[in-house]
Design a protein that fits this description.
This protein is an alpha/beta fold. The protein has one domain: Nucleotidyltransferase, domain 5 (2-Layer Sandwich). The chain is built from five helices and five strands. α1 packs parallel to α4.
């Protein structure tokens, strides 16, 4: 058997707005993660398992950010259990807006300070700073694992919604998660 050199993980989210208000706010969300190499990453999540609708407005963007958080946490959990020395983990997401926001974290810190609740977008609107801060902390932990040679490398990248089997499975599981989320809210 050939040595594993790269493990692609696909993560995506699915969001259904509860009301037809075109605000894309306050709906039901699901997350799907998939790896065609390591099935331990093949998972479905309902947003209701991650946060209460009473605590935060549900949005498509929050659901997308959570999909990245969940996948990064899963990688760290797997590294706690198994050795992946020399293996590169590539986390692929289909949300370009999330990637762009993550890239701007240093700018948010510089302009608005370390308190992520003060971070704003270019339109002056508050953003999901706490989730971005969580992603930044998880990236730091993954980079430390790379330095300790527990992991070959880690990359978070945008991948267009493509004819990719890993993405298709992740999308299917994200839709299942949104259905679970809706069912959980009716209990």
């Amino acid at each position: 058997m050939a040595k594993l050199e790269n493990c692609n993980i696909y993560t995506t989210s699915y969001f259904n707005c509860e009301f037809d208000d075109e605000g894309n706010v306050d709906g039901f969300g699901g997350i799907g993660t998939c790896s065609l190499i390591l099935n331990i990453f093949d998972k479905t999540y309902a947003m209701s398992d991650l946060e209460s609708k009473n605590d935060e407005y549900r949005t498509g963007m929050r659901t997308s950010l959570w999909s990245i958080i969940i996948a990064m946490e899963n990688i760290l959990e797997e590294l706690d259990e198994n050795s992946y020395e020399g293996v590169k983990f590539t986390l692929n997401t289909d949300c370009l807006n999330s990637i762009n926001m993550i890239k701007k974290i240093p700018d948010y810190k510089k302009k608005y300070g370390q308190d992520s609740t003060n971070w704003k977008n270019s339109r002056g609107e508050y953003i999901d700073g706490k989730l971005l801060e969580k992603i930044d902390n998880l990236k730091t932990k993954l980079r430390a694992r790379c330095k300790n040679e527990e992991l070959g490398d880690f990359e978070l990248k945008y991948m267009k919604k493509a004819d990719n089997l890993g993405y298709k499975f992740a999308r299917e599981w994200a839709e299942e998660g949104a259905d679970l989320d809706e069912n959980n809210s009716s209990d």
